[in-house]
Amino acid sequence: PGCWRTVWRVMNFSTKKRPRKDAWKELQSELDEREKLEEENSAKQRRLDALRARACIEEDPTPAARHCYMDFEIGRQMGRDPQITRGRLVVELFHDLMPRTVGRFVELLESQHEPTYRASLVSKIMPGDYMVAGDRDTRLEGSMRQDHTAFVRQSVMGEAKWQLPHLNPGILSLVDGRTPRFHVTFRKMEELDGWHAVFGKVVYGFDLLKLISEQGNINGEPKQPVVMTGGGAVPEGTHPREFLKKLEQPEDPEEHGYNKKVMRYSSTYRHTGLIGH
């Protein structure tokens, strides 16, 4: 028993709480740090909510924002009567978030000479998902890589807003930092979030987007050529509605009766057996 009492005294066990110096100060500092962290998290959440709001579809786009338009052509210019569909996308650009990227994008749209987006191909169409536009095949149109590699890389790495989500159909984002190609989504594409920098959204022309989506195969190859024929910037203060263009589709021969199946009769036979002969 005496031995245990000695061990108890040496280890100084006690059921009473020993007083801590500056305990209230430590507690107050912990509370201050926690409060500061909560404020930072709430501010970050507000910024994310504001970015998400930028990617939402608006009923009436604001003329104060920067807009541009892109003209597309679906079909082949071949044969006596080519079936060509023409349409226009009107896009709101996030100039305040990515000014250098947006500025260069508009330059490529407006340029009449190389480098330019004119006559560039939509090289990949994933039906119902997205398309890859702005591609210029070196065998057909020449290459722009030497002109854009450094600029696009610098723009994306320097000012990209990776938190902007692909929240809706019609979101524009850069494919990578080496080429001027860009995505246009056909639906909400969470798979692209954080990997591709968003710089704009479509505000008018969703009927054209639907038609382009229908031109894709499962492997992404277009069924027929989809070409960007032109584009440019909407003047400041002008409502983008004024740059709307009606979708031009080829006339339906069935509607006008051109392709109706006609059975021709003769006096010799019940019918010739040839439809439309």
Any overview of this molecule?
- With 277 residues, the chain is an alpha+beta fold.
- 29% of the residues lie in helices and 18% in strands.
- The protein is built from six helices and nine strands; from the N terminus they run H-H-E-E-H-E-E-E-H-E-E-E-H-E-H.
- The protein has helices spanning 2-11, 23-54, 99-110, 145-159, 206-213, 253-256; strands at 66-74, 85-93, 120-121, 124-126, 130-133, 171-174, 182-185, 198-204, 226-233.
- It has a nine-stranded antiparallel sheet.
- A hairpin with a 7-residue loop joins strand 6 (171-174) and strand 7.
- The longest helix is centred in the first third of the chain and has 32 residues, at 23-54.
- The relative contact order is 0.17.
- Mean pLDDT is 77; it is low at 138-151 and 261-277.
Summarize the main sheet.
9 strands, antiparallel
Q: Count up the helices.
A: 6
Strand numbers in spatial order across the main sheet: 3-9-1-2-8-6-7-5-4
Q: Work out the strand percent.
A: 15-25%
Structural class based on helices, strands and sheet pairing: alpha+beta
Alpha carbon gyration radius: 31 Å
Note the quaternary state here. Answer: single chain
How many strand elements?
A: 9
Describe the structure using short key phrases.
single chain, nine-stranded antiparallel β-sheet, disordered C terminus, 277 residues, alpha+beta
Question: Could you write a compact summary of the structure shown?
Answer:
The chain has 277 residues and is α+β, with helices and mostly antiparallel strands.
SSE map:
Blueprint: H1 2-11, H2 23-54, E1 66-74, E2 85-93, H3 99-110, E3 120-121, E4 124-126, E5 130-133, H4 145-159, E6 171-174, E7 182-185, E8 198-204, H5 206-213, E9 226-233, H6 253-256
Antiparallel strand pairs: 1-2, 1-9, 2-8, 3-9, 4-5, 5-7, 6-7, 6-8
